[in-house]
Design a protein that fits this description.
about 160 residues, alpha/beta, two-stranded antiparallel ribbon, 5 helices
Amino acid sequence: MRHGKSDWSTQADRDFDRTLSEKGHSDSPRIGQWIRTSQYVPGRIICSPATRARQTAEHVCQEIGMSPTHIDSDARIYDAELNLLLAVLAEGSVTVERLMMVGHNPGFSDLLNYLCPENSTGRSMPTAALAIMTLDNTWIDLDENNGNLLSLILPTQLEH
């Protein structure tokens, strides 16, 4: 999942510290509600430590009934390129069947297009978008075209 819409008017000194906008605060829980009702609740959440990503993950946790203390923060996700995102997945997900990673573009769009090129070539992950995919290989053996995109859920598709 890409983080919700951030607030560009914030007084944050660094990009890392930008918070969610009002839209981000409303879209993120809606995605969490969809996850809960669609029964795609993750066994683990790995999240960028950037404020807006963390807030997004916390909103999702509230909706799916998971304590935010179970969010694993991984600094490598912030501003990560494709190869680093693949490494994060390979290292931390061996025993987890359903994983959710919360982070940023352009890395997340690149990851989606790398794993699921037939379903998503050239697709971008808008803010608060959630890609649901199955994988042909284990987390540690991910390679190009190892995924099948089931759905790309956007908050605009969901009822308020």
